[in-house]
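Moderator note: this is an archived Q&A kept for reference. The question asked for a predicted structure of one protein chain; the sequence and the answer are reproduced below.
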Amino acid sequence: MHALLLSGSLGMGHDVMAEACATSLEQRDWTTDTADSLRLMGSRSGKAGERVFRGLLAIPGVYDAFHYTQLRSGGRLAALAERASSKYVVPALDAELRRRPSDLLISVFATGAAAASRIKPHHPDLKTVVFCTDLCPHRLWVHENTDLYLVTSQTSHRFVRRFHPDANVVVVPAPARPPFYTALTQPEARDRLGIPPGEPCVLLMSGSWGVGPVVQQASAIAASGVHVLAVAGRNTALHAALTAAAQGHPYLTPFGFTDQIPTLMAAADLVITSSGDTCAEARIVGRHLLLLDVVPGHGRENLQQELARGHADVAPTEPDGLRRATLACLDRMPHIGTPTAGTRQAWEQAFGKALASLGFAEPRVPILKE
């Protein structure tokens, strides 16, 4: 069996979900490929799409307006955006499926979901799945030619049914990449990173783009005597600025794009981050969350959901306000918590049942290969 996963290069969250699904499929002896929906639009159009999205985020209130008046309700501009992207993605996706036929197509990005629906009539044996971890899947996520939706809450389930009343929807635990399920203990992680035992330590990250005044935030918290593991993600300018700020400051340790996040979470007492799939990873490791309200639109909805799930607080993004919130959180949490998200076995069982509902045979005892 072969599966094609459609991700999107706006941040890391979509790639993380694609990787988690691919890992679970490969555990079942599937082969997988992952394609970037924006790259399927072509180099020029894909880059233009990313610039438009970044531009919407850069102007306060603009993306909120677009999300709540167009995407969430399925307005005229949302429909135009879908048609514009599908014009490029559909032919490229059709060519990819003809080059390497797939049994299963999983879209973890809204642009991919729209294209999958349009391509389905030309590939009648193809099963199409949309996996959305947002609290409120908006109109571009939901399309009639979708065989199955995977969501992570009953609220998300109902939002899918808003646009697709007879949709097949399954609620599953939010998955994570395997290293988060087997993260080091805090003493092991701190020994590896050189963080003294017993001293307060936080992980600060704000998406792969490093949204917000991260340098000022990290510096303010570190000045209070708290070890700050500050991750810049793919933002090279931010990484350079954090590295400069850390010169001569023993409490601030900068990181760029890194695969050490499970270890950094394990070393920390508290994870400070924006709302997104990082929240599930932190809960799996067993860390409390302090959330930054820096992602507009769907990010604000997701933040409310994370607060409702518990083991999370919300803080100002202003550096001194975040410093005060961090110290207060650390004072309230003298001990490291236990995991508060689903286990890997729970995800694998739910994912296996979802595959079986589409007619794919599920191994009697799936092997979890480390």
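Archived answer notes: The mean pLDDT is 89.
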